[in-house]
Amino acid sequence: MQVGFIGVGAMGLAMADHVRKAGHTVWATDIDPVAKQAARDAGLEVVDGLADLTAKAEVFVIVVATDAQSRSVTAGLLSAGVAKGSVIAVAATNHPDTMVDLHRLCAGHGVGFIDAPVVYGMQGAKHGNLGTLCGGDAPHVERMRPVLAAYSRFVEHVGGIGAGQLAKTCNNMLHWAACVANYEVLLLAKRYGVDAQRMREILLQCPGKNITLERWDTTKFTWHEKDMDVALELSQAGGLSLPLFGQVDQLVKMLGPDQVKELLHGTSAQYLGQTIVPLDRAAGGLS
After folding, report:
1. Per-residue model confidence as pLDDT tens digits over 153-198
2. Of 97, 126, 160, which one is at a domain's C-terminal end?
3. How far is CA 266 from the centre of its chain?
């Protein structure tokens, strides 16, 4: 299959390379010349822009950072002359409403469109074992499946257009809630004199473990505000009261990799304006 990749930064390049290794011809482009050169070095066919890409590829994967970029790239592909019957997949994490708009736009040009955001992050991209969550018409999902499967451990067709983004939002909600829970749990351990990293290692053997805790020391906290904004916008639009996630939204914005590193390996930790240091045994510590 002739596959066009738009966005070959670190994650997009890894995904595109797995598609190439699966036997597809991959044509790539990016606005960053450094990313283009990295794609050439990886053995991908690199073109200058979207017009060149539409002349080569039959299906397209968009790996960008924002809703605005997904809109711009999709519109650009259509303007450049995507052939009727082609399919565009957005692998970025976007709002479901954006997917509905772009699906309608593509349909007007006779082009298929699906949302196909991924889970398991950069490590999943590197190892080709992401999870892909799809929304859209079944024939379009099936057309894209061989490409998506090249970098995924599973490809799930969740439902209609936008459903893949909804599933990604649900996953993100659990992830950020776990981030807050993990921090508070390990903060309690630290306060009572038990090494937080040691407690993390112990909890990973217990029923309360979670994948977020396993990856706790590599979480970058790069998209928590965007993720939680989408979740709360959807809950408001759907007439739902989700008080727990209202709190998660506020609390997770206070956390970052530096705070986690200090909690796990430092002599103190910061939370809600407090500096937490371990209690010694005389003051009620346990170690």
Report:
1. 999 999 999 999 999 999 999 999 999 999 999 999 999 999 999 9
2. 160
3. 29
CATH of the domain at 70: 3.40.50.720
Domain extent for 231? 166-283
124 and 183 assigned to the same domain:
no
pLDDT one-digit tens code per residue, 244-257: 999 999 999 999 99
Task: Please state, in angstroms and rounded to a whole number, the distance separating the CA atoms of residues 98 and 232.
Answer: 16
Cβ-based neighbours of 273, under 8 Å, separated by 6 or more: none
Number of structural domains, the chain? Answer: 2
At 282, is the pLDDT very low, low, confident or very high (cuts 50, 70, 90)?
Answer: low
Give the helix/strand (H/E) hosting 59: strand 59-62
Helix runs in 115-162, H state only: 121-127, 138-149
Specify the CATH number for the domain of residue 207: 1.10.1040.10
- Residues near 206 by Cβ (< 8 Å), separated by ≥ 6? none
pLDDT digit string, tens, across residues 198-210? 999 999 999 999 9
Its pTM stands at 0.93
